[in-house]
Amino acid sequence: MSKSIRTGCDRKTCVDRRGFLAAATAGSITVALGDLFAGRVSAEDADRKATLTGYPHKKIAQLDQLAVDTPVEFEYPQEGATTGCMLVKLGRPAGGGIGPDQDVVAFSTVCSHMGGDLSGGYKAQNKVIGPCMEHLTTFDLTRHGIVVAGHATQPLPQVVLELNGNDISAVGMLGLIYGFSANPERERSQ
After folding, report:
1. Residue 78 maps to a domain
2. Is 106 domain-assigned?
3. Does 113 qualify as catalytic in the annotation?
4. H or E element: which one contains 29?
5. Which pTM value belongs to this model?
6. Is 135 annotated in the active site?
7. Rounded CA separation 82/117 (Å)
8. Which of 3, 40, 133, 136 is the most buried (most CB within 10 A)?
9. Domain for residue 143, yes or no?
10. Counting runs of H as helices and runs of E as strands, what totals does the chain give?
11. Per-residue pLDDT of the chain (190 residues; tens, 9 = 90+)
């Protein structure tokens, strides 16, 4: 004698275990294959585009004119303020690097800890900048400017670069330049 339990649904509206597993499998396959389609925009890509809104595009250098481990200093995102930066071809791939070897990067030369001047502090042997004269912080330029040693708790702000043919341009900043509530050019556009 079996008892029938009434659940309030009929065969057309209820999902049995087999139906549930089939739907879950199809959903999992769809998600897994989603990464294979060109043009897919991830949340990270959307965040990066939003982060770069409001920055000027500034031509900095020519790719074929760069020598490995020879920094090029420039001001960005604002001229005449404490916004010194440095572009360098490291000779090895780096986080955020551009060019055929993904080895051209640019960073603020204002320490993220207390605003000390890092210009002229590039050390080619280790691909770092520093130590800062204020509190001896050193930053790794191959890994998005992370702190190697010292008191800083934030990475060095990285300049987002764009390569158009042979022209290298600054198009944004990742990270906040010390001493500003918002990076200079973004402050006006928000």
Report:
1. yes
2. yes
3. yes
4. helix 17-34
5. 0.71
6. yes
7. 9
8. 136
9. yes
10. 3, 10
11. 555 555 555 555 666 777 777 777 776 666 555 544 444 433 444 444 445 667 888 999 999 999 999 999 999 988 766 679 999 999 999 999 999 999 999 999 999 998 899 999 999 999 999 999 888 999 999 999 999 999 999 999 999 999 999 999 999 889 888 877 777 765 454 4
